[in-house]
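Example 3.2
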Amino acid sequence: FPLLKDKCFGCHGDKPKKQKGDFDMKSLDSILKGGDSGQPGLVKGNAIESLIYKSILWLDEDLEMPPKENDRLDEKQIALVKEWIDAGAPWVDEAGRQKYLEAEKTKLVTEDGVIVKHSGGLDDSWTYRRYKPEDIWAYQPLKETEVPAGENAIDYFVQKKLKDAGLYQSGKAHKFDLLRRVTFDMTGLPPTVQEINDFMNYKSAHAYEKVVDRLLDSKHYGERWGQHWLDVSRYSDTSGFSSDWEKSNAWRYRDYVIRSLNNDKPINQFFKEQVAGDEMNPADPEMTVATGFLRMGPYGTAMVTQPEARQQYLDDVTNALGETFLATPLKCASCHDHKFDPVPTRDYYSIQAVFATTHPGEMKANFLKEENLNRFDEGRKVIQMRLDEAKADVKVIKDKEAKAARKWMADRGLEYRSRHELTNAPEDKKPPRFIGLTIPEQGFLKVREQDVRIYTRMLERYMPIAQSVYSAGYHVMDEKKLRKPTNAKKFKQLNKIPQTHILGGGSLESKGEKVSPGVLSAVSVPTSYKMKESMSGRRLAFARWLASDENSLVIRTFVNRIWQGHFGTGIAANPNNFGATGAKPSHPELLDWLSIFFRDNGWSAKKLHKVILMSHTYQMNSSHQELSKVKEIDPNNSLLSHFNIRRVTSEELRDAILQTTGELRKEMGGLPVFPEINLEVALQPRMLQFSLAPAYQPSRTPDERHRRSIYSYHFRGMPDPFMSVFNKPNADDSCERRDSSSVTPQVFTLFNSDNSYERSIAFALRLQQERGTVYEQVKLAYQLAFGRNPDDQEFEVSLAHVKGKVTYHQKHQPEVKEYPTILDRSLVEEMSGVSFDYKERLDVYENFVADKKLWEVSPETRALADLCLVLINSNEFAYIY
């Protein structure tokens, strides 16, 4: 009786000393006996006269059970208790209970939605918890639905729903809108003028299909759809928290994702490699890189004990795996059986046991011939220079300290040998800490010692290592570097297989029953995947279960993400949550049809894309002839009567601007680059554990700065303000769907920022370089920005605007601004509480190859740039129809 156990046994259950009111509810006899009140707990066949029923109704303020508002039974639970008592309070003894379980153990769900099958080792009480069938839809096997011959399956399912609602689909989109839509969707870039002209002039019935095939073969396909996956997997180049240390070579995982998608690697293989690539093929560096998925979350160990840091990592990996692959947030089950979904706590810790021997580490992985190693030598020299300067500053201050220490010890007849010896010497035989140093020198020493650690870490960008994992029994968690231990004597538990226990309330102090590696028990996968309890191989067994053709939950989850990427909303609108609290699928038959198609076509993402892109549902117009009726019946357009207009993402917007201005560099992969960001943000103080981190410095040349946004360095602790204001998600949590807000800061960022001015100048210079007269330049501006010619009114207004602005700019010369090369910093020395100042060198600006500035171009260029600025700020530029 799970309801009684859940709601009552805590106070009236298995622990007599804690029974409230001397009322024991473990058996029907004890309930009938009652407690201190002298009344029986219930009257068989009469709920109205039963004490239990009266108490759960909260009719008497002296008898309200359970006593906490948050624990009260809901209407359905109250009705269940009433039905049980009115039926005579039937009570199943243990023998009957076991007989029932044996009879039903082969079933997954009965007609009333009772979970009884437990492939992962559910306890018996769990099997009696009840769920509505519609709430556990995602855990059921895929269901085939017959589609009439000659019908497009996607259109058939969508139109069937619309017909039932009294609606119909809109007609086909204009060719230009369709080309722009599919090009952005598949590559994250707008079509070029040449691509537009080719498509508009090509009259073949197969013209659109040829475009789809071209885009699927494009190298930019992996960049666009790789970004979708990196949102979900939480890609970042730093660890987050107050100690935002660099994750050396995280970029290799980013490139692995792009490369895998471009090669149309079967998605089940893609999944297995990210969970257990190192166990599949330890000798293959790419497999080591692939398991970077298990390192993508935020990571910090400061101010927590080693066991806590270890548990935080395991909790993070477990929940990330649940949301990413299973569309099931698992973290709720870390403390108690999930309140809404079929995820018992045992499942949570069984899955966590899969990772009990998994440890994060920067593992050796030789660079692949496919990887871009450009600018390695140049980048290494810059970081080495900064490291050498920091070490030199530290040496100067430490030499001064050592000199004062020698004198202090000589005055006392003691011999000074080394700083290391002083650390372990008795207090009365070593000089005071920081002897001979002023407060500013003490503070500056800590800053520069931290810089040494930071730049040493940065040098690892150029080493053949990868953010990955390894299998072992025990390892010390570290903030800055994670290395696989080689000294077995130092780590005595290195070869001891750890045990996993259910943690009561998620607390390490409340270890309960031991559990073995397992899977999500509600998912019925007939094929047997034996979970290993050895040091290695656990993740591989789990990955095989995860990527099984029978794992309907995993298949549905990925297919739903692809659908969302094309339509803005998934068939199930919460891609990370297919549970009871997530949105139910709008077209469940369609989701299953697509899932079966995807599975039967070798888990090919590109084949799935194509079947979606070739449907009328994708090619629809974004308007509708009966829009008022549609809004009344289906205000969210869940039934897909027309295509949803969407704003481009932050990456698409930045990349589209760069392509329009002619600045975009399409080099693929390699070291992350540092675009110019708002200078005030770049130079603001950023704490990094013990000190301030060095200021953000952009890449030196336009060839680096103007690469696609997916290759930009992603700080957790200091996001790019341009990208953030246009809704780039925080990498701390898996992003199931990006927001698409329209807020005032976006206007300020895109219209008034230095970056926007520089892009508009570059746009104007391109127009002047490619066309000789202002008339031709205005026309080309529309072609490049919008893919079309201006109409007569637009042309006249734009031309007049440019001519008027020439006069204005001839009278107004912009102020010249210089990049800073020295930054004044102020910090508080932690031991004394006294503030001190120091200077930070910004070496990148000493030989910086800057983009053209307003004061460096003619009034005619600035006037044309004003028009360009308006064009890239328009809805037509930022929205896809």
